[in-house]
Amino acid sequence: DCFMTSTAKKPNCWNCRYFRITHQKSFPYACESIGFKSARLPCWAVEEADGKECRRFIAKAVSIGSKPTSQ
Q1: Phi-psi region of 35 (alpha: psi -120 to 50; beta: other; left: phi over 0)
Q2: Exposure check for the chain: N or C terminus, fewer CB within 10 A?
């Protein structure tokens, strides 16, 4: 399941740099890497369609203590 922690081996859409929220009721989730919107988390849709875990997962960069800069 895609809600596993980051120490798990399965991809977690919530921690992926390509995961987006679309704000569309019928397709609230999207994967920019694969280029599709889904009613469910993209990692679930990929695993169901392909039978394999998402291979495009890349963890989001995390900057601890950084503040946005104003330009």
Answers
A1: left
A2: C
Q: Quick: pLDDT tens for 2-46.
A: 554 445 578 899 999 999 999 999 999 999 999 999 999 999 999
> In 10 A of CB 56, how many CB atoms?
15
Dihedral (Cα; 40, 35, 48, 17), 10-degree rounding: -70
CA distance 11 to 9: 7
SS3 38: strand
